[in-house]
Design a protein that fits this description.
The structure is a single chain. This protein is mainly alpha-helical. The chain has helices spanning about 1-10, 15-30, 40-70, 75-95, 100-115, 120-145, 150-155, 160-175, 175-190, 195-220, 230-255, 270-300, 305-340, 345-380, 390-400, 405-420, 425-445, 465-490; strands spanning about 450-455, 455-460. The chain has one domain. About 80% of the residues lie in helices and about 0% in strands. Strand 1 and strand 2 (about 455-460) form a beta hairpin. It is globular and about 60 Å long.
Length: about 500
């Protein structure tokens, strides 16, 4: 399988002439500073491979969730506990990946700027430092997260069978975290250089390995009974590890002006400091989001297994729309960074707005489908009568999210555009304010019948899971508006990196 991936992404050892010819083709095809192409076509050229890659991740996530909800063995109560555990695992797996921002945000900004300024040696040096930082962050995250796993689950109010399932799953996730972060940073560096197709081909290979490994790990093969829920984690983690090996091999062979060498993997402290100057605020933004999401998830988990499972399934379907936001966010990040590096700030702004317009339109159409098809979408994961409580809790919140798609697009796409410019401090402020001043206070007020405060108690609305999602939508509209205002005002165009 690795050989097949290598053939798909050109891993055969090329001669320097072929590498240079490839780089020339890549530059003419994907260069965000090319003034002969419209912002719309440039955004689409970069976004469609990224969208396809996100779709592959989505297929894997939906397949894993279907496995848990359609288990052929065990009582229905176990299935509900599995689906409840899966929600927490989804959150924590996504949150641990946020550690990768510590490396990928700086890599995206510096590599794109230097590619735009035709400084490929500088871009390559930034890529190497980002990979060092990703490996270090992954190792620290694996040690700390694994050691605090039981404490995390207690904080998130996940207990009983659901807690046991989640504990076993997340131990594997933390164990393999370093390779996940290194692979993500390699993909971010390639995208920043203008190559979003190589990560797509690698993603195809990862999916082709992941799906059978997860199914076999969960259900077994022949006389082997499988590992159950933790088998899904091993299937996902091992396939991602193989994808990381291929990504590093591609970089070692040379791609899009980047080439991984052993000599380059030495810490360059001045360059590392520049990388961290961009990445630390972005990482702080991610960590503030993680902290807010932890408190928010604890509120959801306090509502019982049916609400936990309904919340997770609704989030899983919401990810369908978010694939477009993340994909056009990649395009906005690259185009803004490259055009600023080439000294074209007005073109950077036009490209960012084109990416936002395209992504917001696509996400709004998907949101309309959520509103119309919410019941069958939930029945897909909850086919048994005993799972009716999950459907009852989840359908209203999936319909609700349809109304927030334009601002959710802003949170993904324009935030990524600002990070591409190196403007990472304002997104930190927006995210912290959205979670801690809007989402969490509203969650307490809208979710519970009685809200206990240090000064006493107040009467709440008692809306349960629907109240949680109302608070979430208010936060999305708040942050999305701030990102839109920040980007359209254009002060980020003078950011130095």
């Amino acid at each position: 399988m690795i050989g097949a991936w290598a053939g798909g992404v050109g891993m055969c050892a090329p001669c320097p002439q072929r590498v240079n010819e490839y780089d020339a083709r890549m530059t003419s095809r994907f260069d965000g500073t090319d003034p002969t192409r419209s912002p719309w076509s440039r955004a689409l050229a970069l976004a469609w491979p990224a969208a396809a890659l996100q779709a592959l991740h989505l297929v894997v996530n939906l397949s894993d969730r279907w496995l848990a909800g359609n288990s052929a063995t065990g009582p229905s109560a176990d299935q509900i506990a599995l689906q409840a555990a899966q929600t927490t695992c989804f959150y924590l797996s996504w949150m641990t990946a946020a550690l990768g921002v510590l490396a990928s945000a700086g890599a995206s900004a510096l590599v794109a700027r230097r590619i735009g300024g035709d400084d490929r040696d500088g871009a390559n040096a930034a890529c190497h430092q980002a990979l060092i930082l990703a490996a270090a962050a992954g190792i620290v995250g694996a040690i700390v997260g694994g050691g605090l796993l039981d404490t995390l689950l207690r904080m998130l109010q996940l207990d009983g069978e659901a807690g046991a399932y989640a504990r076993d799953y997340l131990r594997v996730t933390f164990l393999l975290l370093p390779v996940q972060l290194v692979g993500g940073t390699a993909a971010a560096s390639l995208a920043a250089a203008g190559d979003t197709r190589t990560p797509l081909w690698i993603g195809v290979g990862v999916m082709l390995v992941n799906l059978p490994l997860a199914w076999i790990g969960f259900r077994g093969l022949g006389d082997w009974p499988g590992l159950g829920f933790v088998g899904i984690a091993w299937g996902t983690g091992l396939s991602q590890a193989l994808g990381t090996i291929v990504a590093l091999s591609v970089l070692a062979a040379g791609r899009a002006g980047l080439r991984l060498t052993a000599d380059g993997l030495r810490t360059d402290w001045p360059l590392m400091a520049r990388l961290l100057r961009i990445s630390l605020p972005a990482a702080a933004e991610s960590f503030s989001m993680v902290a807010g999401q932890m408190v928010f998830l604890a509120a959801v988990n306090g509502l019982g297994d049916a609400a936990r499972a309904g919340h997770g399934i609704a989030l899983g379907w919401e990810t369908v729309a978010e694939t477009l936001g993340l994909a056009f966010g990649v395009a906005a990040n690259v185009l803004v960074g490259q055009n600023l590096g080439a000294g074209r700030p007005d073109d950077a702004r036009r490209c960012g707005m084109a990416a936002y317009a395209l992504g917001a339109t696509g996400m709004s159409l998907v949101g309309a489908a959520f509103y119309t098809l919410a019941v069958p979408l939930f029945r897909f994961f909850c086919p048994h009568p005993e799972q009716a409580a999950i459907v009852e809790a989840g359908v209203p919140v999936l319909k609700l999210v349809a109304f927030s798609m334009p601002m959710l697009a802003s949170c993904h796409i324009l935030a990524a555009a600002l990070r591409g410019a190196g403007d990472t401090r304002f997104p930190l402020l927006f995210t912290a304010a959205g979670f801690f001043l809007v989402r969490l206070p509203l969650t307490a007020w809208l979710t519970w019948s009685v809200v206990r405060l240090p000064t006493g108690t107040i009467e709440g609305w008692g809306l349960g899971l629907y109240g949680c999602w109302l608070a979430m939508q208010a936060d999305i509209w708040f942050r999305g508006t701030l990102f839109l205002v920040r980007f359209t005002r254009g002060r980020w165009q003078g950011t130095r990196v």
